[in-house]
Design a protein that fits this description.
heterodimer; A: 115 residues; mainly beta; 7-stranded mixed β-sheet; 4-stranded antiparallel β-sheet; 50% strand; B: 113 residues; 5-stranded antiparallel β-sheet
Chain lengths: 115, 113
């Protein structure tokens, strides 16, 4: 069964450093998302991406965050200058927007620890 | 915000019993979905119910939707130890400008052997 693949599975970084989280969505999916989940808490929407541009973003997705689909395969989330409160699981998801409904397929997540 | 809110936050039941989780949301929706998350893993889609549907079944899962009350329930019948996980409801907004999927806080379900 097709999967969404995320790397790295765990990254530890110092506060202020840049981090890039990578995702390979399912190949025939057209819509891509990043969500984050602070340990034990709710799953929060960060950004959605379609047709090589951001379609929606949340208040969390400030100027420190950016997304890119550089090569038609990878979908990346960059955090320019990490803060302690960026420590969380970051989930990539994609969907094919079939039958008029979004059904998300999630990756296993990237755990980010900011020290 | 269309965010769903589940209750209870945590539920422990004996294996074989039925588990019921509820979800409430705030705005008009196209559909409501339930996802499952095993500890430390990604979310897995379980079932989707559209706004014009009232009940849907999939195996041991039964979902109801009451759009007048803006609420949904997920029933897992004959629970098994492997059902231990967190369950999230998620809503897709009805506004074409706001069709992202928003998740609730989740219910942690623990099935006791």
């Amino acid at each position: 069964e097709p999967e969404v693949t995320q790397t790295p599975s765990h990254q530890v970084t110092q506060m202020g450093q840049e981090v890039i989280l990578r995702c390979v969505p399912i190949s025939n999916h057209l819509y891509f998302y990043w969500y984050r989940q602070i340990l034990g808490q709710k799953v929060e929407f960060l950004v959605s991406f379609y047709n090589n541009e951001i379609s929606e973003k949340s208040e969390i997705f400030d100027d420190q965050f950016s997304v890119e689909r550089p090569d038609g395969s990878n979908f990346t989330l960059k955090i320019r200058s990490t803060k302690l409160e960026d420590s969380a699981m970051y989930f990539c998801a994609s969907d094919r927007r079939g039958l008029g409904a979004n059904v998300l397929t999630f990756g296993a997540g990237s755990r980010l620890t900011v020290l | 915000s269309q965010q769903g809110e589940e209750d209870p936050q945590a539920l422990s039941i004996q294996e074989g019993e039925n588990a019921t989780m509820n979800c409430s949301y705030k705005t008009s929706i196209n559909n409501l979905q339930w996802y499952r998350q095993n500890s430390g893993r990604g979310l897995v889609h379980l079932i989707l119910i559209r706004s014009n549907e009232r009940e849907k079944h999939s195996g041991r899962l039964r979902v109801t939707l009451d759009t007048s009350k803006k609420s949904s329930s997920l029933l897992i019948t004959a629970s098994r130890a492997a059902d231990t996980a967190s369950y999230f409801c998620a809503t897709e907004g009805a506004n074409y400008r706001d069709d992202k999927i928003i998740f609730g806080k989740g219910t942690r379900l623990h099935i006791l052997p």
